[in-house]
Amino acid sequence: MYDTIIIGGGPGGYLAAERLGHQKKKVLLVESVHLGGTCLNVGCIPTKTLLNSAKHYVHAKEAGKFGVNVKDLSFDWEKIQSWKTKVVETLRSGVSQQMKRFKVDVREGRAEILSTLSGTKAGTVRVHLNTGLVEEHEYSTLLISTGSLPVLPPIPGARDNPLVVDSTGLLSIASVPKRLAVIGGGVIGVEFAGLFSALGSEVTVIEMMDEIIPFMDKEQAPLFRKALKGVNFKLGCKVEKIEGAAVHYTTKSGSAEKTESDLVLMAVGRRPVLTGWGAEAAGVGLTNKGVTVDDRMRTNIPGIWAAGDVTGRSLLAHSAYRMAEVAVADILHKLDGEDALQNTMRYDAVPWAVYGMTEAAGVGITEQAADSAGIHILKASVPMSFSGRFIAENTLQGIGSLKVIADAASRRILGIHAVGAYSSEFIWGGAALIEQEFRIEDVKQLIVPHPTVCELIRDAVWEL
Ligand SMILES: Cc1cc2nc3c(=O)[nH]c(=O)nc-3n(C[C@H](O)[C@H](O)[C@H](O)COP(=O)(O)OP(=O)(O)OC[C@H]3O[C@@H](n4cnc5c(N)ncnc54)[C@H](O)[C@@H]3O)c2cc1C
Questions:
Q1: Are residues 13 and 118 in the same domain?
Q2: Angle 77-101/44-61 helices, nearest 10 degrees?
Q3: Which of 84, 115, 150, 228 lies at a 20 to 30 A Cα distance from 168?
Q4: In sequence order, what are the residues at sequence separation of 6 or more whose Cβ sits closer than 8 angstroms to the Cβ of residue 125?
């Protein structure tokens, strides 16, 4: 019998397996496709690998400005793809090594719950192995981490159209399209828009809302759009139908327009995987947003936890990691009676980042969120050009800013939002300030290396 069976081998699942293995628990991890899940195989890692190749290309194109001459510049999409595959395979094998290191049993196949705990009786899981064989295993505790899949909205012409792809399809196209239409101005749509625009595609992003990236500070989103030079944004536009690769939409003022393209990326969001693992038979509480969990990642069924995208709470790899750790703490509490009750999931200091030739990142509340919650704030923004390093290094990214929001009464830091290079690398510092409830005066006493872009956090705090 296993102490814990984990369904899904993405960031939520494999991190939980590592942590439990580290505590010498007997763990079975079942993954139906590839260890590493969406993030490693068709999400975070391949996108950032492709973006890095695009960055090399753009930097080489602009090298003359820095006194470096580059002749006969071109890129080789096939080689870029091979490098991406190599990176993914290296990291996937790293996850596999970690499973061996922590003595986690791994099965390739689809797992479903057969029965739940009943009195002293263990629960059971059936595994439909990819080889065609079927196994059954008993568990004391179970973690669901089945992740999410792209949404295909019922837009006429979208289904069964070879010219319409989702993010997974776009990652392995044979050549760079001359024209790309992106439906959806969220993080995934915008990252791909930046990637293909940098590689020379004519890119149009069509977004139904009035602004891209809905959770971004409204002062900074236009700046980020401006930094995405070359991408054509159609905001407040509702897509009506797709014919071939032509996207027809209605503009805000009601006029009918279309964008001709060679390929369409459908990037309107992701939905949790709620089927195929026996949720209904087990009676696990669900809404259409995901598995319902409490702040310790417990589902309504004793002995069953859920972590990651499947909960629909925060669809990010690092959120999946943290949810997995919180679930593991509670699982250990159940298995060993340890005092793990203090470990709860908080969502107020989860940082996010958008990658590309320029970056954007944020954590905590935006000015708009503070306004609608009636919180009286202090705010200050500083341009990225205040940073010596930003000026010295930046080519494309000539624009950007960093904004800090603090509570006027307690003077605690509530939000940090940045557009510009390295934002994704330093935003965790902002998360730490918020998580640890730092006040303006506390931040002023911190020493930050110079010259860096993250110095701007201190600069903005002094402006408060
Ligand atoms: C293009 C793209 C770019 C992204 N970039 C970023 C980024 O830069 N940063 C970031 O934080 N997030 C990013 N994300 C989101 C990130 O990938 C997810 O938040 C993360 O993968 C969630 O981890 P998870 O473990 O919950 O689920 P997943 O990674 O989706 O893993 C779930 C796994 O469960 C398996 N599974 C499902 N059902 C079963 C079953 N019944 N039996 C066995 N196995 C099953 C699936 O095959 C899958 O491998 C990106 C996503 C995409 C699509």
A1: yes
A2: 140
A3: 228
A4: 5, 7, 28, 30, 111, 112, 113, 114, 136, 137, 138, 139, 142
Q: Which of 212, 240, 268 is the last residue of a domain?
A: 268
For 205, phi and psi rounded to 5 degrees? -105, 125
Residue 404 has pLDDT above 80, yes or no: yes
Q: How confident is the model at residue 396 (pLDDT cuts 50, 70, 90)?
A: low
Residues with CB under 6 A from ligand 1: 7-13, 30-33, 37-39, 43-44, 47, 110-111, 145-148, 167, 188, 273, 276-277, 308-310, 315-318, 320
* pTM assigned to the model: 0.96
Helix (H) or strand (E) holding 167: helix 167-171
Q: Ligand 1 mean position to 353 CA, how many Å? A: 16
Helix 77-101, helix 11-22: angle, nearest 10: 30
Query: In this structure, is residue 430 part of a structural domain?
Result: yes
Q: Tell me whether residue 155 is in a domain.
A: no
Give 419's contacts (C-beta < 8 A, 6+ positions apart): 220, 223, 224, 227, 358, 359, 360, 384, 399, 400, 401, 402
- Is residue 158 in some structural domain? no
Cα(303)–Cα(297) distance, integer angstroms: 11
What CATH number is associated with residue 457? 3.30.390.30
Name the residue with tokens 């990142």.
Answer: 361
Mutate to test the pocket of ligand 1, among 38, 170, 275 (most ligand atoms within 8 A of CB): 38
Give the residue ranges of DSSP H helices in 228-273. Answer: none
Domain assignment of residue 154, yes or no = no
pLDDT of 294: 97
* DSSP code string of 19-31: HHHHTT--EEEEE
Range of the domain at 432: 352-463
The answer to whether residues 235 and 260 belong to one domain is: yes
Token reading at 161:
């159209």
* CB 146 within 8 Å of CB 276: yes
What's the burial of 265, exposed, middle or buried (CB within 10 Å: 0-12/13-18/19+)?
buried
With residue 426 as reference, give the H or E element that holds it.
Answer: helix 423-435
